[in-house]
């Protein structure tokens, strides 16, 4: 029995995708989907750059989930998966300038413009609660 590497990776990362989609975050899997959603989104938009990295992404996803229990929330919720949906991730990152590529990372946009960005180094070695606090402070500032 042989399994392709691609199939293996898809199976391995599905739970990581599910961590975000089950809480209502829409996956953008192609550059066309990113281009259709990000520049035209009115109001506030959260974009989570998901990642396989356990040391950072293992706290990022729960931190995002915790933050989404807050009373002030973004109007739109999206995710791209670094290393998997490479072209979609590259397209999304075009909207995160001047920040270099970072995964995982979290962007908050308002009317198509980046207003808050959490880079990987701001996720590493932090708890889900600390990440959620950072996000909810940004939600309070931009999503009310």
What do you see in this structure?
With 144 residues, the chain is α/β, with parallel strands linked by helices. The protein has a single domain (1-143), classed as Glutaredoxin (3-Layer(aba) Sandwich), CATH 3.40.30.10. It contains 5 helices and 5 strands. It has a 5-stranded mixed beta sheet with strand order 1-3-2-4-5, with helices on both faces. A hairpin with a 2-residue loop joins strand 4 and strand 5 (113-118). Helix 2 packs parallel to helix 4 (86-93) and helix 3 crosses helix 5. It is globular and about 50 Å long. The chain starts with a helix and ends with a helix. The relative contact order is 0.20. The mean pLDDT is 94.
List keywords for this structure.
single chain, 144 residues, alpha/beta, Glutaredoxin, 5-stranded mixed beta sheet, 5 strands, globular
Report the end-to-end length measured between terminal Cα atoms. 54 Å
What's the architecture in CATH terms?
Answer: 3-Layer(aba) Sandwich
Mean pLDDT: 94
CATH superfamily: Glutaredoxin
Q: Classify the fold: give the CATH topology.
A: Glutaredoxin
Topology:
Layout (H helix, E strand, L loop, with lengths): L4 H17 L4 E2 L3 H7 L6 E7 L3 H14 L8 E6 L4 H8 L11 E6 L2 E6 L9 H15 L2
Parallel strand pairs: 1-3, 2-3
Antiparallel strand pairs: 2-4, 4-5
Helix pairs in contact: 2-4, 3-5
InterPro entries: BrxB/BrxA
Family: Belongs to the bacilliredoxin family.
Pfam families: Disulph_isomer
């Amino acid at each position: 029995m042989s399994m392709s590497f691609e199939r293996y990776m898809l199976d391995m990362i599905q739970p990581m995708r599910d961590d975000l989609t089950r809480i209502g975050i829409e996956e953008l899997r192609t550059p066309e989907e990113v281009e259709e959603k990000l520049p035209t989104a009115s109001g506030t938009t959260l974009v989570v750059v998901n990642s396989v990295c356990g040391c950072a992404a293992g706290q990022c996803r729960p931190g995002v989930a915790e933050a989404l229990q807050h009373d002030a929330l973004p109007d739109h919720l999206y995710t791209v998966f670094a290393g998997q949906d490479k072209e979609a991730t590259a397209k999304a990152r075009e909207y995160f300038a001047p920040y270099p590529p970072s995964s995982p990372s979290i962007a908050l946009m308002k009317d198509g413009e980046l207003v808050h960005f959490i880079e990987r180094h701001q996720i590493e070695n932090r708890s889900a609660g600390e990440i959620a606090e950072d996000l909810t402070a940004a939600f309070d500032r931009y999503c009310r």
